[in-house]
Amino acid sequence: MARINVPNSADPMIGLAKKIKDKHTADGAASPLGALNMADLAAKTQTADDKNQLAAKLYRDAEAATQARDLALGLKSAAPGTVAQYVRSVRDVLAGIYKGNEKKLGDWGFEVDDSPTPAKKPGTPA
């Protein structure tokens, strides 16, 4: 017996539904699908296609927005003129002003960790 697969993802399902609708329309009154609500299938296929295209556009827009955000923030680089570079400069200026009283940087929104740094573990011998 032949296996007849039905897609389980958006693009192939929409494509198949469009082909079915087109074949039904082309066959007209001779279509064996006359007893099915093909108008509802066509309407829902169109809705699914429209929303699928919108989702793809929004995904592309989200990627572009994320890239622009990351570029402005400069989290992964030390590039001048980025938010991260300005924040580091602010930290450095304030750390100089409040030397010995670095907790004051907390007033500016910085998280100040004044716990002692753990001693480095000696390397293992070769």
Per-chain topology:
Blueprint: H1 10-27, H2 38-73, H3 83-97
Helix pairs in contact: 1-2
What structural keywords apply?
126 residues, mainly alpha, 2 domains, 55% helix, elongated
**Straight-line distance between termini:** 67 Å
How many strand elements? 0
H-E string: HHH
Rg for CA atoms? 31 Å
Oligomer: single chain
**Share of helical residues:** 40-55%
Count of spatially separate domains: 2
Summarize the structure.
The chain is built from 3 helices and no strands. The protein is mostly helical and 126 residues long.
Structural features, described:
It is built from three helices and no strands. It has two domains: 9-73; 75-112, no CATH class. The protein has helices at residues 10-27, 38-73, 83-97. The mean pLDDT is 94. The chain starts with 9 loop residues before the first helix and ends in a 29-residue tail after the last helix. Helices cover 55% and strands 0% of the residues.
